[in-house]
Structures are given as C-alpha cells and as structure tokens.
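Give me the 3D structure for histidine kinase.
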Amino acid sequence: MKYWLRKYVVVFTLILVLGLLFIQVRWIIYSINFQEKVFHNSINLALNQTIANLTKNKKMCNIMKQSVGCDTTLNQQMLASGIWDQLHESIDNELKSYGIGLEYDLYIITNEKDTILRGSLDKVIKKGVCYTQSLRQVIQEAGYDLVVSFPSRTKFFFDRVGLMFLSSVALILMIIGSVFYLLKLYKEELILAEHTKELINNVSHEFKTPISSISLASNMIRKERYNTNEKLQEYATLIFKENKKLQRQVESLLHLAAIERNEFEYEKEKIDINIIIEDAISTIEMLLFEKGGTLKTSFKATVNEVFADKLHLTNTIVNLLSNAIKYSGGEPDILVSTADAGENISISVADKGIGIQSKYLKYIFDKYYRVPTGDIHNIKGFGIGLSYVKKVISAHKGEVKVESISGEGSIFTILLPVQES
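Predicted structure for histidine kinase (421 residues):
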C-alpha cells in the first residue's frame, strides 16, 4: 500500500472511531433523557390515579377536609385514623404498577408553602425533585397540593441504564485504548519498514559494484584468446550466468523500492511489443537451453505498438519467462502469444509446469511472497519478481492476470493499452 494511501486509511479509521464514540455518547445521553421522561410520566400518572382513588373514598375525603387548615391535634387525628397510611398504600400500589419501587416522602402543601403534615417545603426541595398534584377534587378547596419527593431518584436511572451505561463507558475506553495502541504499532511498523527499505537499498547498491567487477572479469576470461582451457571457459561461463541472474535480482529490487517511494519516473516511448518479447526471450535462452526446454511464439495481435518504458516492460516479460522455466517441474514447455483485446493488447506466457494451488493465487503478487513448496527447496528466488511485474504493469495503466491449475501449469496474461490513455 502506498504511503499516502496508508495515511488516508489511518485518518479515515480515526474519523470512523470518533464517529462511533460520538454516536455512543449521544445514545447514552438519549437513553438517560428517555428514562427520565418515562420516570416523570409514570409519577404524574401515579399521582393522578391516586387523586382519583381518593375522590372515590368518601371517608377519606371527609377527614382530609376536616384536617385542612387545622392545628396539629387534628393532623394527628388524621394520622391516627389511618388515612395517611391509606394514602401511602395507594401511592405505593400506583408506583409499583409503573415499575417504580423507590422510597419517597409525602407532603400536603398550601399555597403559602406551609406544610400541613411532616416538615417544610424547603426541606422537601433539598431532598430531591418534587412532583405535585392538586387536592382540589378531594377537599373541594383550592390551594392545597399533594407533593411527593424521591431522595434516591438516581437509583431508578441506574437500575434502568446503569449496566448499559457502564458497559458503554468501558467499551468507549477500550476503543480509545485500542486506537492509541494501534497508532503506536502503526508508527513502529512505519519506522521499521522505512529502515528495512533503507537497508535493502544500501545492500543492493553495495552489490552493484562487485557485480560489475565480476561481470567484467568473466567476460574477459570468456574472450576467445583465453579460450584454451575448457575447464576455465566452463567456470567463466557459469560465473557470467550466475552474475547476470544476481544482477537482474538486484535491479528488480532497486526498481521496486524506487517505485514504492514514488521516486521513479518511467521513460515511456512508442515501442513494438513483438521486439520487446524477442529481447526478453534472448535474455533467458541460455537458461532455457540448460533445462532442455522449448519455447514457441504466436503473435496474433494486429496492433503491436504500445506506449511504455522499454527497460521495465522487457524486465517484466523476462520475469514471467524465468518463472515459467523455474517452475517447469521438468523440461520447460512455454508458449508466448499476443492477441487483440479491445483497446488493449494481450500478452500471455503459458507453461505446463507445476502450477499454483488456487488458495495461493491471491497472494502471488504480494511483495516477498513465495508459494509454499513443502520440504522442497530447489526453487530459488526472493519473491519480488511478480510484485515488480504488478507494479510496472499498473504504472502503465494495464492489468496482469493469472490462471493456474496445480500440476497442469499456469498462464500469466498482461493487458496493455495500445495507445497512451
């Protein structure tokens, strides 16, 4: 994934997490507000029903009428008669019918805020939120209210949303902690990846000088005037061949690193794809000969010219041909073909080698990925070839596909636009 794309993914993820946290907090607030409305409505309905019950009780109405405005003695008579207990019982039943089992204090208040029974209104207010209902229907006189207060009202909300609230808070804290931890890991991975790239870059550059020296020396040994010793010629040829292979790997590694850092510019020009394929074939001819393989071509595309970087497109096809030889499982049998594909030209490299299991196909273009071969270690490579192919073709606005059957072979197909988009 490109660096700029990774940054956008991180920013987008943070926005999603913040959005999730915002929704979670809003949901908690909404739940508390909703439960508070339910509580208020339930209390008011319970008080209304209590007043309705009082109105139907003639005895209770008469005693309360006699008690209103009287001294403490009459108030004590009201208590002694059991009216106050009946009033409590009526309110208890109504509250329980709405699922409210909280303790409460009960008062009767005048307009002058003088408490007829049990304490003063100031103390009521200090104890908690008050709920008031007029007693006019009961005592046939205005100015008297039934007041209920709930000192432990918070318990009701905690019972209803407490567990949900604590779970949400715990979830939010875990999400925040996870995000910070992931950001820390991401930062560490970025630093490690950057150091790894620098190391590979430095090592690759260090390899270039000895590779050039070995190439020069092996070429001199292979020249005709030194060709008197057959054994020496054989060793020189081996050195030259292995040096070329190492040189291709180092160049691919450097090019891949440059592409990933967006430091590489392609030198595109109009080129004949048939010539590019022939050049690539000539590069792997010696390797193909050593394996005793055969390679056929079938150029059926009517338009052969593409706008591309000659060096990198050649290296791309060389990579596909090298893989076809490497994974032949015996004597390579390769077919390279071209065909028209709409506004594209199709370039296919087909082999009859060991093939690739379907479960591995989606990974083969990943950098450094190599298809598992069990305990067999005779297939060499660094796992950068197909990753390089993918990046080069993508940079040319093309596409690379693969079809493979394990044990029967593979077909790699490159689609390139016949003219620059």
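The chain has a mean pLDDT of 76. Let me know if you want a second pass.
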